[in-house]
Amino acid sequence: MVKIEELKNYTIPYCGNKRIQPYGDLVIFDGESRKTVKIKDEGAKQYFTFNRKKYYICNAGSLYSPKFVIL
User: Fold this and answer.
1) Which residues of the chain have pLDDT under 70?
2) Domain boundaries, the chain
3) What is the DSSP string of 40-62?
4) For residues 35 and 61, what is the distance between their CA atoms, to the nearest angstrom?
């Protein structure tokens, strides 16, 4: 089971940025290994890749107090 442990480098895009959704780095733990992965965009969806598998995520918190969950 993959868990999100921590959110690092959380950035809310402003002017002059080509992104429209907030992004950053996630610390992921699967029971035996821990890795830092980047949040990527696919249209209106966000995902990260861990051990060659794509996991979609959404923000269950607010813009300024995010809580990402795996769908």
Assistant:
1) 16
2) 3-62
3) EEETTEEEEEETTEEEEEEE-S-
4) 23
